Amino acid sequence: MTTPHPIESSPALPTISLANLSNPALREEELLRLRETTHTVGFFYLIDHGIPEELALELFAASSEFFSRSTNEKLAISNTHSRHYRG
């Protein structure tokens, strides 16, 4: 079983382009879209970020595997057990 690409599985979620944010000619318009999206929808897909799709799919698979574990397994590795945890 393969994990569907997240953009294909949620076409209604807005996209924000990192390339547009980096382009002086498109930056202002993309910043307005980003502001509107974060204030109305609250979530978006960031595209043109340069992360290889294969790596992104590996991360989604690892996340899915982790969250399918029992609550006790997840709590056993909670960051609250770390001496570096600051709340």
List keywords for this structure.
87 residues, elongated, mainly alpha, two-stranded parallel ribbon
Topology of this protein?
Layout: H1 6-9, E1 15-17, H2 18-22, H3 27-40, E2 45-47, H4 53-67, H5 71-76
Mind explaining what this structure looks like?
The chain is mainly alpha-helical and 87 residues long. The chain has a domain at 11-49. The chain has helices at 6-9, 18-22, 27-40, 53-67, 71-76; strands spanning 15-17, 45-47. Strands 1-2 form a two-stranded parallel ribbon.
Structural class: mainly alpha
The ordered string of helix (H) and strand (E) elements is HEHHEHH
Low-confidence stretches: none
Helicity level: 40-55%
Put the structure in a nutshell.
Helices cover 51% and strands 7% of the residues. With 87 residues, it is mainly alpha-helical.
